[in-house]
Amino acid sequence: MSARQSAGRREWGGLALLALPTMLLGLDVTALYLVVPSLAVDLDPTATETLWIMDAYGFFIAGLLITMGTWGDRIGRRRLLMIGVAAFAAASVSVAFAPTALWLIAARALLGVAGATLMPSTLSLISTMFTDARQRASAIGVWATMFALGMAAGPIVGGALSAAFWWGAVFLIAVPVAALVLAGAPALLPERRTRAGRLDLLSVGLSLAALLPIIYAIKHAADHGVDLQAVGAGLVGGAAAVAFVRRQLRLAEPLLDMKLFTSRAFSAALSVLLIGLVGFGGVMFLVTQYLQLVADLSPMAAGLWMGPPALAMLVGAIGAPLVAARISPGVVMAATLTLSLAGYTLLALAGTDSTRAVVTGFALVYLGLGVIAALGTDIVVGATPPEKAGSAAALSETVQELGIAVGVALLGSFTAAVYHRDIEVPAGLSAPVAETYSNSLSGASSLSNQISADALDHARTVFTGGLNTASLAAGIAVAVAALTCFVTLRHLRPLGADDRAAEPVVSTSGSER
Question: Is 307 exposed, middle or buried (0-12, 13-18, 19+ CB in 10 A)?
Answer without folding.
Answer: middle
